[in-house]
Every structure is written in C-alpha cells, then in structure tokens.
Amino acid sequence: MEPRYRLVSGAPFKPAHPFLTQLLDAPAGYNYLVNVVGFAPENIFISGDSAGGNLAHALTRGEGLKPPGPLGGLILLSPWIDLGTTNESLPDGSATKFIGTDYIGDRNGDAMYAKAAFSGLHGLGILETNSYISPGSLDPGLVDFKKFPPTIIVAGGAEVLYDSIVTLKERMARDLGDKLRYFEAPDGVHDFMIFGWHEPERTNALKEINKWMQSLGVEKA
C-alpha cells in the first residue's frame, strides 16, 4: 500500500501544502486499512521517526481517524515534537549542549526552512502553542493524552531534541501511566536507529520495542 501524499515547500521554492495538508493526507492510509481492507484498529500501530514522529502524533490526536475502537499503539522514535522555540532557547538545554556533536544542530539551516514552509501563511507563531504541531512545547497550557493508545517513545540521550522529547514523555506519563514506555540510549544522536553502525544502542532500542509490543499481545513482534 502506498498512500498518496503531498510534500510541503516554501521560499525560495513555490510555497505549497503547509500545515493541515498533512492531517488531510495522512488518515487516508489508516482509513483504507480499516474501512476497505477490514483491519481492526487494535491491530494497527502508528509509528514515525523525527518529523515523521510529529506526524504520527498528530495523526493519532487528529479527528481524521475516529476509529471504531482503540489503536494498537503509537511508536515515536526521536520525534521532532516541538517545532517552536521554547526548548531550543534554554541556555543550558540539549539544543545548545549537543549542537556540536549531533548532526542536526543547525537551527538556522534546514530546520528553519522546514519550520517556515510548514507553518506557511499561519506564520511561525503557530509552532509555539499548537497541540498538533508542538505537544513537547514548554507552554504549560498544552495538550492532554488521556485518549491516546499505549505508546513507546525512543530518544537519544545526546540529541538536540532531547529536552522536548522528555517534556513530551512527562506529559504523556501523567495521563497514560503504565501505558507509556520510554527508552533512552544514553549516547544516542538524533534518530540513531536509522544508523546500522550505532550499536549497541540501535539493537537495544529494537529489543525494547519488541518487548513492549509483546507485552501488548503482539506475537513475534
């Protein structure tokens, strides 16, 4: 299955498909599995890494799913979960501490392009407090997770996004309790699981995800 999707772009290219487009496109695959193929929602796990983790969260939160039953689970791998500035502005935070060692340290390069293109005509201000975009923001009024399925979060202890991921973890733990599992690789860079050489962190994370899925009744995860 390969759902159709639209890619966001912004200046100096032609601006196209900013925020909300993704919440129209992403549910298509889920709805196809449930309403056409006949999968039960509890047999579906939504996962994403980095910016894909942001989308996986938004899809789970979004109204586009409206499942007849609860999802099987949510897997967030180094999710880019605060597109605003609340975490990256911390003087002694991970965005400053690991900027020289993590490969996504440049806040004014690709990351800023992605933010500007994604926010589009809404402006960058929407990134600070929108619960679909930045649930890891330090804004105290943001989001609850009471209706979320069992979730596992994987983070690298040496990634620039670490602080925002920990903020997300604490918020989800408050609402989900033991339905939340968290795994941290102490020396892991951002999205370390995509690198075959990043061992033993990569294998340890995969084993933890497998153990978590089996605890939910998934056989031979």
Automatic annotation (TrEMBL):
The active site is at S50. It comes from the Eukaryota. Residues 15-193 form the Alpha/beta hydrolase fold-3 domain. The keyword Hydrolase applies. Keywords: Hydrolase. Coiled coil: none annotated. GO terms for molecular function: hydrolase activity. InterPro entries: AB_hydrolase_3 (IPR013094), AB_hydrolase_fold (IPR029058), GDXG_lipolytic_enzyme (IPR050300), Lipase_GDXG_put_SER_AS (IPR033140). Transmembrane segments: none annotated. The keyword Ion transport does not apply. Belongs to the 'GDXG' lipolytic enzyme family. This is Alpha/beta-hydrolase. It comes from Pholiota conissans.
